[in-house]
Amino acid sequence: MTDFVIAVPERCVRILDTLNDAGFEAYVVGGCVRDSLLGRIPSDWDITTSARPEEVTALFRRTVPTGIKHGTVTVLSGKESYEVTTYRIDGSYGDGRHPDSVMFTGSLREDLMRRDFTVNAMAYSPRDGLVDFFDGTGDMQKHVLRAVGDPEERFREDALRIMRAVRFSAQLDYSIEEKTLGALSGLVPTLRRISAERIRTELSKLLLSGHPEKLFLLDETGILDVIMPELALCLKTPQHNPHHCFNVGEHIIRSVCAVRADQVLRLTMLFHDLGKPACRTTDEDGIDHFHGHAQVSADLALSIMKRLKYDNASIDDVVLLVKNHDLKIEDDARSVRRAVNRVGERMFPLLLEVKRADLAAQSDYQREEKARHLDRIEELFRKVLEEKDCVSLKTLAVGGRELMAWGEKPGREMGRVLQAMLDDVLETPGHNERTYLEQAYRAGRYRPEDQPAEEDH
């Protein structure tokens, strides 16, 4: 026990006091203690106690039996809820994730001993101060992540801890202690037993951390071969091209680091060049090219995100950005309007962020010129918005109702006519006026146009 003081929320203190006054031990535990010591605001406060679940339930007016089998009762206080879990010793882990059984114990030390890492195995109460049996504070001072007790045993109990180790390493910017790293590396194949949803959660937290470069650690430990072999292949794929100075995988990870911490943006950068290994060709001068890689990467992004059970909205946004990340946009308002029409007004600013992150992870070749070009595209986009140029069918001056009034029958041909009108307006914004469009329609002047091309980077 040490002299650290943690500002525990008042409602949480009342729960601790109620348990203490009834003769039981009670502490806040785990991540909330760690984060408090780091000067961070905990997202939730978990409580551990010597009281049995039925004793906790008897002490509080509003409770929910959220995990009685494992000793957890949720205590409701105002609009807040706190998980209160009885000290326990876990039995064997038959599925490599959850204990087959738990045995309640009166020992706080035994309860903390079952936890994953020393920085997560500390407890605190205003009455007793900090309880740190396994020197979590020492490891925090050394910026080291170390398993509690035998690391191999900890990872065999719960294979997800393998991913959690890398994720915490990224969130805390800690190195992983040598024996802990060795144990997790040796047990990487057991990750195959973990559900896609849990893998996704840990991967997303790593990506959104302050140190997404820890993705390299996933490769060094062999974890990528299990959870995303597509990226592992990229880290073995060179790209001899003036635009690049890193292999495909290193470029990808550096681009992830270069974009802001938004799930859609970081997933886009993670997936944007995954198709390059399949598309790589080398010309007679030894220069690598990756024609068509954007579409292949988009297909892989769709497959991987479905495999990891991402939500449909995120999938749609990421796949759209990956497919268009190399979209060629000329330095003129017409090209910008067409690009905005292609990806949507909401997504176009994100596409520009993707292009900037992609550039940040390339070589110095034409870097300043490319950056100026993106600046100009962004300036033109702002002008398009300010002048309220039409960039979609939604803002076209006419719609299906007007076309039917002019004698057009509903159906596929009407859709083609509207698209042709939009193509005209994208070319010349001043044409977005009902009288002009009607005259042009009656003159039979509308025909579809080709789509924009891609760059080859």
Give the structure's gist in a few sentences.
It contains 23 helices and 13 strands.
β-strand percent reads 5-15%
Strand order of the largest sheet: 3-4-5-2-1-8-9
Helix content: 40-55%
| Biggest sheet character | 7 strands, mixed
- Gyration radius (Cα, Å) is 28 Å
Shape: elongated
The tally of helices reads 23
Distance, first to last CA = 58 Å
Oligomeric state, counting identical vs distinct chains: single chain
Number of strands: 13
Q: Ranges with pLDDT <50 over ≥5 residues?
A: 448-453
Q: Whole-number average pLDDT?
A: 94
What class would the helix/strand composition place it in?
alpha+beta
Please, could you describe this protein's structure?
With 457 residues, the protein is α+β, with helices and mostly antiparallel strands. The protein contains 23 helices and 13 strands. The chain has helices at residues 10-21, 31-37, 53-59, 108-113, 136-142, 151-157, 160-172, 178-186, 196-207, 215-220, 223-227, 229-234, 248-258, 263-271, 276-279, 293-307, 312-324, 333-343, 348-360, 367-386, 400-405, 412-427, 434-442, and strands spanning 26-29, 46-49, 63-67, 72-77, 80-86, 88-90, 102-104, 123-125, 129-131, 144-145, 175-176, 281-282, 288-289. The strands form four sheets. It has a seven-stranded mixed β-sheet. A two-stranded antiparallel sheet has the order 6-7. The longest helix is centred in the C-terminal third of the chain and has 20 residues, at 367-386. Mean pLDDT is 94; it is low at 448-453.
